[in-house]
Amino acid sequence: MKSQLRKKTMEELSALSNEDLLQKTERIYKYLFSLPDWQNAGTIAVTISRGLEIPTRPVIEQAWEERKQVCIPKCHPDTKKMQFRAYQTDDQLETVYAGLLEPIIEKTKEVNPSKIDLMIVPGVCFDVNGFRIGFGGGYYDRYLSEYEGKTVSLLFECQLFANVPRLPHDMPVHKLITEDRIISCYS
User: Fold this and answer.
1) How would you classify the pairing of strands 118-120 and 132-133?
2) Were both Cys, which of 52, 75, 85, 101 would link to 108 (CB 3.0–4.6 Å)?
3) Exposed (0-12), middle (13-18) or buried (19+): which is 99, by Cβ within 10 Å?
4) Which pLDDT tens digit goes with each residue over 117-166?
5) Could you tell me the domains of the chain?
6) 16: which residues sit within 8 A by CB, 6+ positions away?
7) Torsion sign (Cα): 173, 137, 120, 27
């Protein structure tokens, strides 16, 4: 069920025109940057997007412009754990499995979860309760089970469903931001 929903959503995303994508992402960024959660955050955790994900480079650049610390995830496939590391320049990045860009451990320092004020959580499909279907690794659910800061996901309306299949360990996000609205999922 999850894989079918993921596939259907990816097909819908690929059908969006570049112009549509640009207009919709601009509206999503506007909502994000207007959130008190964003404005009050000193440290933002975000992935470096790829493929059909909403581009995060503009988010990273806005954070830097506002003098916020940016940290990005480093996944450890052997332990299925993830940590966030401070990110300041592109020479701190390396390409790992599946074309993902991640921080180079020797060139970055780990950011303690308690220091992250706002985490932008990626996903493919979402429901109105903040539950998500990610890319299948489970890294975020494991991390979020111990993370106590604010969480938000950026998505297009076509990625939103009434319900997505969930397992007991799945962790919802606090807010969803689409091109049309901000949805508060739980407090």
Assistant:
1) unpaired
2) 85
3) exposed
4) 999 999 999 999 999 998 777 889 899 989 999 999 999 999 999 999 88
5) 2-117+134-151 (3.40.50.10420)
6) 24, 156, 158
7) negative
